[in-house]
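Quick start: what a row looks like.
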Amino acid sequence: MGSLEEDRLVQMVHDFIESESSPTPFPNSSSEFHSINHQAKVSTLQEILGTGIEPECKVLGRVLKHMRNKMDSEKTTVLKKWLVMKLKMDGFNASICHTSCVTSLGCPAGDYEYIEIVSKTENDCPLRLIVDIDFKSQFELARPTKSYKDLVDTLPSIFVGSENKLMKIISVLCFAAKQSLRDRGLHVPPWRTSTYMESKWLSGCTKVTAPTTISHTRDDREAKNGGHGFSIWVPPVVKPKTRNLVGGSGLSRQFSKMGINCC
């Protein structure tokens, strides 16, 4: 009997030593790490989007006012020209920028349009602001992970900001897009790199101006033409007809023969 109790005691000591020497596992430690990392990225993106200088806020307010009833409209060149015209009427130096990317290093050729506003800071230094009315869709992915989708949902549909702010946003989103694609087992295409994305807004561009004159009946015509009425009707110039008085009338010639001045 004593031998049996002794064997049990030895087994209990052995089990205790084994439990103390084995490291305590941390369940879901990998998922917790990814969750913390994801929250940090969302907070960083929110901080970037939340910072803005006075010219950015001023332009954003006017853009949102003009686009209030056109958020669901197709983001065509005609709509961009209409918005540029409105911003010019507000006193902004606005124009449409057209960029083209040639095929290189596996990247396909592509064209892109956005609105540029050249403003000035308090120190009277030139400031280039980028206005994109279809900003969020440029970062959407097929089959995104939940983490990446949360980042894209944080982006505004309409972006107004400086080149520096845009570069920070592209850096965060492109890094997250690479992780999302790899987690899905997909190849990272060249057009999802930060270099390619920056070329949409930060490469050399061709500027397209929009008309600034507007008639008093433009609002009525916009309602009839789907909101895009740019043409201005100008009445034709009517020239008065002139009479050929060379030689005078027959009656005046008779008076002149009679020596009577009819004038």
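That is the whole record. The radius of gyration is 36 Å. Strands lie at 94-101, 110-120, 126-132, 159-162, 206-208.
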